[in-house]
Amino acid sequence: MTPIASANGTAAFLAAYDEVIATRWPAGTTSTRIPTPYGTTHLNSYGPEDAPPLLLLPGGGATSTVWSAQAAALGRTHRVHAVDLVGEPGRSAVGERPIRTVEDLCDWLDAVLDALDTGPAALCGHSYGGWIALHHALRAPHRVRRLILVDPTGCFAGFRAQYLVRAIPMLLRPDAARTRAFLAWETGHVPLDPVWLRMREAAAGLRWVRPVTGPRPAPEALRGLGVPALVLLAGQGRAQQASRVAGAVDRLLPRAETVVLPGVSHHALPLYGPVTAELNRRIGEFLDAASDESR
């Protein structure tokens, strides 16, 4: 999108974004811009064009670039489309029609799927992207072949108070130093990819028009969701308590499989090297099961 900032700040962010794509994404990655009523949506795509579609939605501030390891692994069997959320950091651009409600957000995602013209797709989201993916699956289950939620926030449990105390100052007065310190605290100082981290810090210095957020989905709506789901939780995440989320998923989602990934925090997903192989294996097996069922 077009941030509200100096030309130099915007240029630095876009250069850092492009560096992540050039150095971390697999050769053959393509970029697409899709017009929607809510703005232009930028996608980074990889994998055979005739393969089953997999749409990836990032967490807040992470951009589509965060899915590089998943694109390389899952792009062997799927056409992976990683989306820059309209209103969030990335190369998508807000339009004249603002996203104000959950319905608007789902309409926006519908427009993206319409443009891709692939039929039902597997939908995967991390954190805030998981919240969007879940709401879309509830509203349009016929468009979601399989649902993958990677440590989704705002879906099944609230944030931990300590997390909010740390996060709110960063959100109210964002800059590179606060972003770096917050991510270091939440991840336990694990070494995040330095190229991606530079991009993430560059984004923090700009002002973005964030799309809608809202309450957790109603329990009765979750109980009625018939889409097969995989919920992958951060065992050492500070954003929410994994055991509490897992319990709620078990109670509310009738066709969900829940996996707690040990030794990883909320913001280390999905790009932290030591866990990407297990994360990709779990997602790949879940998607392969869908392919077996369709034969």
Q: Count of DSSP helices?
A: 10
Beta-strand level of the residues, as a percent range? 15-25%
User: First CA to last CA: what distance?
Assistant: 40 Å
**What general form does the structure show?**
globular
Indicate the structural class: alpha/beta
The H/E string reads HEEEHEEHEHEHHHHEHEH
Give the overall average pLDDT: 93
Rg, Cα atoms, Å: 18 Å
Oligomer: single chain
The major beta sheet can be summarized as: 9 strands, mixed
Structure description:
The chain is 42% helix and 18% strand. The protein has 295 residues and is of the alpha/beta class. Strands 1, 2, 3, 4, 5, 6, 7, 8 and 9 form a 9-stranded mixed sheet that branches. Helix 9 (242-252) links the parallel strand 8 (229-234) and strand 9 (256-261). It is globular. The termini are far apart.
Secondary structure blueprint with pairings:
Blueprint: H1 7-24, E1 30-36, E2 39-46, E3 53-57, H2 68-74, E4 79-83, E5 93-94, H3 102-116, E6 121-126, H4 128-139, E7 144-150, H5 161-172, H6 176-187, H7 194-204, H8 219-223, E8 229-234, H9 242-252, E9 256-261, H10 273-294
Parallel strand pairs: 3-4, 3-6, 6-7, 7-8, 8-9
Antiparallel strand pairs: 1-2, 2-4, 2-5
Helix pairs in contact: 1-7, 2-10, 3-4, 5-6, 6-7
